Amino acid sequence: MSNKEVKAALKSARDAIRNKEYKEALKHCKAVLKQEKNNYNAWVFIGLAAAELEQPDQAKGAYKKAIELEPNQLLAWQGLANLYEKPNQIDVKGDLADVYKKLLELYESGDKQKWCDVCNKLVELYHQEKKYVEVAETWQKLIRMKEEEGVEKAELHQLWKKMIHLLKDSTKNQDNKTGQLLLTAFIHALHSAETVPGEDHQNLYKEFIQCLSKFPHEVGRLEKACDDMMALYPTVSYPLEVLCLHFIQSGTLSEKALHCFSKLLEMDANSGPGIIGFGIKCLKENKYKEAVQNLTEGLQKTNQCPAAWHYLAEAQMKIHEHRNAVLSCNQVLEALGTPEGPNLRWKNLALQLKAESLIKIADADAAEEAIKALEQIVDGNSDPVVSALRGQAYLNKGLVDQASKISQELLLSHPDLAEAHALEGFIHYSQKSYEQAEKSFLNAIERKAGTAEYHQYLGLTYWFMSDETKKDKGKALTQFLKAAKLDSYLGSAFCYLGNYYRDIAGDKSRARGCYKKAFELDEMDEESGTAAVNLSVELGDMDTALSILNEVTEKARPGTAKWAWLHRGLYYLRTGQPSQAVSDLQAALRADPKDSNCWESLGEAYFNRGSYSTALKSFRKASELNPGLVYSIYRAAALEQILGKYENAIATYQQILKKTENYVPALKG
Q: What architecture (CATH level 2) is domain 212-304?
């Protein structure tokens, strides 16, 4: 085949491809290759025809042969790109990226538009593969090309914005290089914006600040960006909110942080981060109830803030709302997920605080949960305070041997740790070894005098040790007073002060004040509530007694607060208000249906109201529950007599007289 015939065959192959006669084209190409096996065009045409005949392997081989012959010719590279771009081609993205890179090299000095088209394709490919560094570097080449062409500032601005869009998901990877490239894109986009200040520029600034807030190591730039945006847009609260959240999450309460909190609240009184910031300020100033109130309100508006939930748990612990503190700690842990870096610190703090709260709840289930929380603390085994908490949890669970083992180990390894001596004291106290407990708590106080709990337990130790230490003003009383002074929310300290003033000092008025304070701090403390009511009655102050009872019964859920319903029911019974007495005594019985004395009182109330049949049932129920209640049996007999059931009445009277021969009311009946 002459040179002329080769050219004719190639022309025929090209015409066949144009007419979609691909098999015919292959024949012509094969004829050429018999004569010239290194004919570049023949191999390219084979690649093209084979690709159309869905013979990808043959097409790929042909293109690669052509590239081997002429590595800097475009046709084969273009054909290979078209082949790899077909939807039925799988696992070729890496090869396609290499082809695009070669095409960029070949187009660079020639067709700029085609260079840009291939560049866009390569960027899209890298983006699908989440290769963000390659995305950024390739897109920057495109921008440089456009800058060399002298494009308009507006087009350049859009190109930088497109780069931001391409990289915005990369922040999840926390890759430092990609992060820096993304931040660079933001800075260029902000500088190339046409209208400053303007809506587009403002929104871009918000995105920039939001992006910076995701990089823990960019604190300085974040603060500067927020300051710069505030200077440009003084009425926009967003940069201040981000800055406040940053200060909250960083756990620092600097002058600048406090200034930001108050400035944000001036700008927007309903701002979640502003209210949270104010709540943290209250916590640091020991205004715990105010802190709880503000942190709760702020978190209703900005709930995805782990640090704020932690501060709320801390404030709730301070006012002894232990169950609520556990819930807040759970919110911290839920918001953090599986944290790294600075957030790991918040997770460890939340787990420790959760364990402390559960230990204060002081039941076996809570103790078990506390142990699980402590196990999750990273490096918790090397922290002696965490070990002391684990010992307390074991003690609450009744595992005294494990608690003692931890206590002994801590006293050997950390003899100056207050928590180690306190744990030893708790163990001795639980075993009623009061003299040893006294030594342990004194050692704990010597090392950490400002802990109310240690003084409270030392006071309890003296209270139960002997009558002498109970009555000694310098012992139990002094420790309870110190505990109450150090922790004005410690209800149990005020309850024992009440016990001291009532039982030892005989000062009913002061005792009543202490019980009232204890009950105000903990409305579940029935002992203090009952004592406050009883002392108010003894002091002739029925208004205070009723005020306490009314407050409790108004808040009580059905089946709770029996003591309050019972006390108020008895008051109504004494003061001739039987209908109200019936209502309250029924409520008391809903809380405890097996209280025979309560049934007896209810019978009395029904009797006084004139509801004899119902009164009879109540007295019978009382005597069923407690056959020793002679008065209830007698009242039942008297009611049978009133209702004309004489035989039953006689039988009941005789039943009483068998047990109590000289019971005058029965004889009379």
A: Alpha Horseshoe (1.25)
